[in-house]
Amino acid sequence: MPRSSEQNKQIREKTKKRILETARTLFAKNGFHGTSISEIAKEAGISKGLTYNYFKSKTEIVEVIFDEFLLDAHNFFEVINNYSDPYEKLTALIESSFDYIEYAEDQWKLNFSLILQPQVMKLARSQMIKFYDEMLNEIEKVFKGVGIKNAASEARVFGAALDGIGMYYMMNKENYPLKKIKKHLLKKYSKEELQKTFR
Amino acid sequence: MPRSSEQNKQIREKTKKRILETARTLFAKNGFHGTSISEIAKEAGISKGLTYNYFKSKTEIVEVIFDEFLLDAHNFFEVINNYSDPYEKLTALIESSFDYIEYAEDQWKLNFSLILQPQVMKLARSQMIKFYDEMLNEIEKVFKGVGIKNAASEARVFGAALDGIGMYYMMNKENYPLKKIKKHLLKKYSKEELQKTFR
Amino acid sequence: MPRSSEQNKQIREKTKKRILETARTLFAKNGFHGTSISEIAKEAGISKGLTYNYFKSKTEIVEVIFDEFLLDAHNFFEVINNYSDPYEKLTALIESSFDYIEYAEDQWKLNFSLILQPQVMKLARSQMIKFYDEMLNEIEKVFKGVGIKNAASEARVFGAALDGIGMYYMMNKENYPLKKIKKHLLKKYSKEELQKTFR
Amino acid sequence: MPRSSEQNKQIREKTKKRILETARTLFAKNGFHGTSISEIAKEAGISKGLTYNYFKSKTEIVEVIFDEFLLDAHNFFEVINNYSDPYEKLTALIESSFDYIEYAEDQWKLNFSLILQPQVMKLARSQMIKFYDEMLNEIEKVFKGVGIKNAASEARVFGAALDGIGMYYMMNKENYPLKKIKKHLLKKYSKEELQKTFR
DNA sequence: TATGAATGAGCCTTCATTCAT
DNA sequence: GATGAATGAAGGCTCATTCAT
Q: How many CA atoms lie within 13 A of C175 on its CB side?
């Protein structure tokens, strides 16, 4: 008697998830071209062939991973928009950003690899651009809301800083004072400080 | 008549340089693993075999390229130190940074690839860390010199912003307002503005 | 309530038949090596695994298909032998041959593939040789019966022509004048014509 | 010092030829899908990788082989057209055909495999059709020239017979009376016999 | 110095077959 | 009887590297 379709679904979901997680980590670490399907399969504890029961190509794996990121990104905006107070929005934004650097490190690295090598996944670039545009718009609105001048340029510099921080952190995780910087920014962009500056 | 040893030396240097330049461009574009020696050789107009007359492996090529960058970086510090006035230093620093993004785009991309994938070149990481440490120290000193508070953290955020800007620029060169941002930062960190803020 | 063994038997036979028909078509179209078990199973509307419940290997499938052909071939001889008049036999033979080309195209193609690539199914070759020997003997007898000289060689040429026609037809089904050729041969080898020539 | 370009050319030609010959034999024996590049390389005494220095894909190999056949076919027509006497033409045609079966057995088998599986090489089919059309036209003209009635249909049957003979021969080379059949046909279609029949 | 033929390891992918359910 | 997840060998192809010249 065959497995019930429910059983199969569970097996598939579990295995698929394991492949995706392993792949994300390895792609992040060694890049797309630097990661082999053998490696992914071995690390995920399955046979090489099985990978192709779940994804029709190595490229599809990276695409699915990226799609998952886009979902995440979408959620991020929803979270931010839960706040109506611009000061709270700003705080949430900074917190999310630092959290993402720390807790979704692999995805973060992978995203930047994809930015640097758009050949790997053509669509990633345009979707990434779209994501950053929305992000910067959001920041700009918030900046305007809290009275920061030159909000457009400042938002760009601010966004760049957040990602630059991610980069520095990736370079030297053990020693980078991520918490300290986070605290610094949270204070600098707190209601209290901002009102002091722009009163 | 055989070539004089002087001629040979010149030929060697010219060929070596061409290989390095080609490799840098291709590594930047397609990544280390995404670039083949054949491609480099063909693009450089030489035979595959000859490449191994100049470099003992593909890895060595990237190492030499990185070494050249380090030399460049060294020069950068010298340039900055030509100025004694911290305001001038700061301006020079911003200008250099934006210039580098624009005019050494390939090297810039390659560097970030190496940061994201330290496996490709083990040594790069530590040297990169060292470079950034010096850089951030320099900025910190300058920041202190111009009276910025929390100079250590601010320097880190500032440095991160400069690199983040580079990243955004790479992602969307056609549309990124690099000049505008540059102008914005030059103004924001100009003597006039800084003295206004910190008077 | 479990199925009765009679029901099971019927299911088995139906499924087996569907597998064989699907396989024959696909083998004919894409060759033995060019056809996968997955493809056969999918096309037959069953699971991959079930195929192995009916046949112990891909090779066995082609063997069973070929065995069925041999049965068919045996029937062919019986049909021919229903006629006692050699002229009628000859007509029946030509008609059968053309019918087979047209209505058992897949089997026809498969047979010729097996002739060209005996490695796929070792036994096919000897059985095919046997079949053709009997066929040519039959033709030879008929030719003798209608007074054709050099019956042995003529039979071989005639048999070859019939198969050659099949080949040409397969090459260019839309344009090949199969009906016209059939008519031509039926006339050429009709009692009337043969008696005219050999009177 | 590098090899002279003449030396390289010779090496390339020799190796390429060896690959093509090996491939033709193996394709003929086991079919396109049943032959691996490894096998070809091993049989040709070279490494797998080197094959790709000469052909960019397995498909290209079969295409080049087929192109060589087309050249041969072209030559065939030239040879036939050297004769002006239709009787001589007919004799030459029969002789060439039997020679080809015997001495270009591999190519013969490969051609028929390609006819049976047009998927392998799309172009083969149309070119083969063209070749056979020309061939049958040629035969038809000759048949008309020697006074055979229903020349169009007879030419088709005759051509089919020649290929059918090839098929039979391939099936059972040791026992097939190729020479005898050849002699039979040469006599049957000799000037003497034809004039006897159609006088 | 320079070439490009040659190698062999390794990559992505397919597929016949097995097996737990 | 039936399913489809899983395996492992093999296939097509690429590529860093070597070597004869």
A: 9
- What is the structure's pLDDT at D153? 97
Residue A1 has pLDDT above 90, yes or no: no
Q: Which of D34, D112, D181 lies closest to C157 in CB terms?
A: D181
User: Do A134 and A78 fall within a single domain?
Assistant: yes
Q: What is the pLDDT of residue C199?
A: 55
Q: Where are the alpha helices (DSSP H) in chain D?
A: 5-30, 37-44, 48-54, 58-82, 86-103, 105-116, 122-145, 151-171, 178-188, 191-198
Backbone angles phi, psi at B32, to 5 degrees: -65, -50
Q: How far is D52 from D58, CA to CA, in rounded Å?
A: 9
How many angstroms is C1' of E6 away from CA of D19? 14
User: What domain count does chain A have?
Assistant: 2
Do B126 and B184 fall within a single domain? yes
- What integer pLDDT is reported at residue C146 of this predicted model? 94
Residues of chain B with pLDDT under 70: 1-4, 198-199
Does B131 lie in the same domain as B42?
no
The pLDDT of residue C196 is above 90: no
Give the pLDDT of residue D19.
98
Asked if residue B83 and residue B33 are part of one domain, the reply reads: no
Q: Quickly state the pLDDT bin for D175 (edges 50, 70, 90).
A: very high
**CA pair distance B164, C35, nearest whole angstrom:** 53
Query: In terms of residue numbers, what domain contains D107?
Result: 62-198
What nucleotides of chain F have any atom within 7 angstroms of a protein Cβ? 1-21
Q: Which sign, positive or negative, has the C-alpha torsion D49, D50, D54, D60?
A: negative
Element (H, E) at C134: helix C122-145
Identify residues of A whose CB sits under 8 angstroms from chain B CBs: 28-34, 109, 112-113, 115-117, 119-120, 125, 128-129, 132, 150, 153-154, 156-165, 167-168, 170-172, 175, 177, 180-181, 184-185, 188
| Shared-domain flag, residues C84 and C42 | no
Dihedral angle sign, alpha carbons of residues D153, D156, D161, D162 = positive
Give the CATH number, domain containing residue A32.
1.10.10.60
- Indicate which CATH number applies to the domain containing A81: 1.10.357.10
